[in-house]
Amino acid sequence: MKLITAILQPETMDAVIEALTTLGIHGLTISEAHGYGRQRGHTEVFRSATFTVDILPKVRFEVVSEDARVNEVVDAICAAAYSGQIGDGKVWVTPVESITRVRTRETGADAL
């Protein structure tokens, strides 16, 4: 099993949820995040004053998937979040040693 983590633009949240639902993903975690990547924020002008916004709002998705479906899930996230602009986000995959469903004590793929 793998943990798929994605840091994406907030406006892509609904499209990513829809893409994952279409794949039959039964569970995911979404949380607010703030940060920056290579672009290091952006500059805004408000009432003739220029402000540098260094920390940008993002959305963090976390999905645990069976190994065989990882590429499919990553591809769906990337396709749904793609705008072609700097700051679209990042997706990374990390191994999951074990997983247990608290209610039933099921483990492994059965716990997903």
From TrEMBL:
Give coiled-coil spans as residue ranges.
none
User: Which InterPro entries does the record cross-reference, listed alphabetically?
Assistant: N-reg_PII, N-reg_PII-like_a/b, N-reg_PII/ATP_PRibTrfase_C, N-reg_PII_CS
Among PROSITE patterns, the record links this protein to: PII_GLNB_CTER, PII_GLNB_DOM
Report the GO molecular function annotations.
ATP binding; enzyme regulator activity
Q: Name one Pfam family in it.
A: P-II
SUPFAM superfamilies under this entry? GlnB-like
What does UniProt give as GO cellular component? cytosol
Q: Report what the protein is called.
A: Nitrogen regulatory protein P-II 1
